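About this split. The held-out portion is used to measure sequence recovery: a designer receives only the structure tokens and must propose an amino acid at every position. Recovery is the fraction of positions where the proposal matches the reference. Here is one held-out target exactly as it appears in the evaluation file.
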């Protein structure tokens, strides 16, 4: 296996770009996928998230493009607009030295910008299946010069119902082409797709990493057995983990803990050996889609599953040995991300803890339980940073008119003070727990998770009654503009200048990907509604 980028036979320009990105050596998937891709072979590559798959396909694409030829020579098809932007940036960073041009296209972005760029000519198009298909249909994107196709996060795309769009695109690409299929998991449906479209693909599988990541911080708390649940709750309140896996020793304990956390207001998914395969998939999907912030699991159930990187691994029960420990905490801190591993240890288990420390040659730091004042301070911090983010993102826009009205009667600072007070105390809407206000006293019990049904996603649309929007207009717009069946639309809450719509996950993804709908001649933006997790909730995990 090549251990340096220069052994891969790359051009000086690309080597320089790699150097500028600070990559010292190829990751395993890069070392194994780049040579066959450079040789023009089809590739099916499986490696977990965060292992460097993007550069593994971007580098060979960049090297194989003939910059003297016109027309789109490579397309990368992937599931979301975020990923489109991210991958296009990576292609640019690695390829601009060679003069490679790249264009991200995705739903929701105005067509005219994309059209101008497509007309001017680019070497690589990175986009979501729906939008690529649209352009191909309109003949604003011609694939007759395309000789390389990469399907990135193929498993996600199929889960989102993009199979037909992908087939449409592949059928439009000339027969003499190279296909790379990159995915964290290779379920049977992807095998079937590969059998249909790929020619004698080189198969590459990278086994799960088991080393403990150096950037994962490891902590432990001593707690009597009977106080474990309270201690865990306090840690969660303090850490506000955007995403966490909690490991228990037994199936019973997984059930009990998941229920206890649910009733304390954490949206929780649970997996263990007695839960059916289908049910496990559902639970896992809820966790991947951020509908559940916590996953409670036994070791056995979690083994071999593609669970996304999490911010926190919590050992509610200390594992039996160092191997299990390393395996568990490998779920966080992947490839450069920061992670925390926290272990609860009863007095009788301290010897086991030290034996694990010896075997991993890493000392865990003992922490004191955060006090209520610590928790309140942390929430205040999170609240202020959420506030800053909201100001910067302009998400408060729908309230602009309301504010203008109020400003006729009151000082802006007085309005802001009152709004903060209401947000903190849950006044007005009855939400939020206000525990960051005083810094003293027990935090109130957070409300149970918002009423979005399982399998449904709540969408936020920035148009409402004032724009003449009625529920039936929304249903119709989703059906005609995003191809979402009306039967998959649930509750619609219409307000003056915005609306919430509950929708089945598959449909919601389409709409979110599209990003805008036309309503009464105007454009309205659609995005996933921010879950109601209390005023102090920190930023959510980014996928
Ligand atoms: P994947 O697609 O497998 O989830 P990415 O391609 O998004 O992973 O890469 C994850 C992170 O690792 C990115 O921040 C990327 O810049 C970084 N990375 C990729 N290759 C290397 C490398 N050879 N050395 C160091 N960091 C890398
Ligand atoms: Mg990727």
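Reference sequence for scoring:
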């Amino acid at each position: 296996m090549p251990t340096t980028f220069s052994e891969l036979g790359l051009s000086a320009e690309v080597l320089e770009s790699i150097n500028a990105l600070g990559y010292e050596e190829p990751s395993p998937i890069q070392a194994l996928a780049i040579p066959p891709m450079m040789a023009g072979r089809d590739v099916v590559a499986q490696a977990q998230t965060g292992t460097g798959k993007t550069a593994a396909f971007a580098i060979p694409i960049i090297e194989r493009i003939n910059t003297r030829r016109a027309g789109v020579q490579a397309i990368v098809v992937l599931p979301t607009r975020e990923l489109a932007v991210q991958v296009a940036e990576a292609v640019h960073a690695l390829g601009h030295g060679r003069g490679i041009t790249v264009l991200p296209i995705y739903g929701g972005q105005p067509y005219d910008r994309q059209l101008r760029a497509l007309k001017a000519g680019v070497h690589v198009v990175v986009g979501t299946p729906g939008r690529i298909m649209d352009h191909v249909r309109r003949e604003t994107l011609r694939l007759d010069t395309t000789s390389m196709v990469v399907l990135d996060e193929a498993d996600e795309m199929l889960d989102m119902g993009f199979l037909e769009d992908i087939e449409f695109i592949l059928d439009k690409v000339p027969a003499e082409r190279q296909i790379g299929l990159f995915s964290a998991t290779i379920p049977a449906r992807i095998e079937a797709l590969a059998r249909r479209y790929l020619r004698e693909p080189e198969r590459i599988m990278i086994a799960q990493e088991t080393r403990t990541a150096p950037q994962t911080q490891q902590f432990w708390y001593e707690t009597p057995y009977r106080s474990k649940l309270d201690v865990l709750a306090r840690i969660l309140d303090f850490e506000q983990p955007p995403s966490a896996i909690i490991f228990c020793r037994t199936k019973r304990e997984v059930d009990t803990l998941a229920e206890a956390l649910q009733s304390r207001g954490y949206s929780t998914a649970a997996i263990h050996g007695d839960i059916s395969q289908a049910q496990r998939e559902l639970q896992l999907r809820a966790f991947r889609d951020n509908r559940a912030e916590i996953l409670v699991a036994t070791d056995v159930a979690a083994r071999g599953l593609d669970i996304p990187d999490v911010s926190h691994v919590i050992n509610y029960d200390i594992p039996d040995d160092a191997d299990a420990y390393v395996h568990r905490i490998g779920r966080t801190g992947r490839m450069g991300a920061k992670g925390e591993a926290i272990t609860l240890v009863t007095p009788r288990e301290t010897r086991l803890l030290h034996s694990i420390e010896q075997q991993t040659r890493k000392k865990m730091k003992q922490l004191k339980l955060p006090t209520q004042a610590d928790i309140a301070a942390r929430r205040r911090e999170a609240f202020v940073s959420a506030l800053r983010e909201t100001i910067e993102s302009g998400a408060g826009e729908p309230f602009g008119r309301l504010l203008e009205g109020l400003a006729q009667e009151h000082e802006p600072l007085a309005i802001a003070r009152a709004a903060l007070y209401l947000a903190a105390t849950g006044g007005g809407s009855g939400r939020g727990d206000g525990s960051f206000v005083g810094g003293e006293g027990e935090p109130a019990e957070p409300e149970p998770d918002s009423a979005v049904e399982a399998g449904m996603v709540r969408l936020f649309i920035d148009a409402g009654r004032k724009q003449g929007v009625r529920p039936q207009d929304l249903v119709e717009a989703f059906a005609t503009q995003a191809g979402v069946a009306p039967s998959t639309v649930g509750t619609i809450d219409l307000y003056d200048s915005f609306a919430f719509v509950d929708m089945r996950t598959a449909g919601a993804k389409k709409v979110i990907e599209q990003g805008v709908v036309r309503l009464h001649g105007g454009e309205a933006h659609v995005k996933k509604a921010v879950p109601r997790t209390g005023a102090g909730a920190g930023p959510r995990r980014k996928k």
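Annotator remark: Residues 465 and 496 are 5 Å apart (CA to CA).
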